[in-house]
Amino acid sequence: MSGRWIGVEGMVLDVTPAGEPGQFRLAMQWDLDHKGVFDARAVGDTIVFTRDGVREILRPTNGDATGLKYLAGKTDCLTVKTGEGYCRRGSTR
Fold first, then answer.
1. Strands, E assignment, the chain
2. Which domain holds residue 57?
3. Going by C-beta distance under 8 Å and a sequence separation of 6 or more, which residues neighbour residue 34?
4. Does the pLDDT of residue 93 top 80, yes or no?
5. Is residue 76 in some structural domain?
6. Is residue 67 assigned to a domain?
7. For residue 83, which phi and psi values (nearest 5 degrees)?
8. Whole-number Å distance between alpha carbons of 65 and 30
9. How many structural domains are present in the chain?
10. For range 73-82, the mean pLDDT
C-alpha cells in the first residue's frame, strides 16, 4: 500500500513505511482546507489511523466504492469513507 494515491480536487495520500513492519506514516490532504501527517498501522488488509480524535480505516477498494465520480472505473484504490478515496494513477479497467 506504500506510495502516492490521488483523490479529487487536490486530495492526496502518501503512504510511507515507518519503523516496524506494519507501521506507516500517512501524509494526507483530505479536502481543500485540511491536511496532516498521521501514524498508522496495518490491521489485516486495512490501515488504521486516528485523525482529529476519530479512528479511521483505509480499505482497499475500487474507484466505484469511493463514491467519487472522478474515480469511477479505477481498480486500485483506498477508501476512508464515502466521498473520501484515493487511487493509483492509471489503475483503470
1. 3-6, 12-17, 23-31, 34-43, 46-51, 54-61, 77-81, 84-87
2. 3-82
3. none
4. no
5. yes
6. yes
7. 95, -5
8. 17
9. 1
10. 96
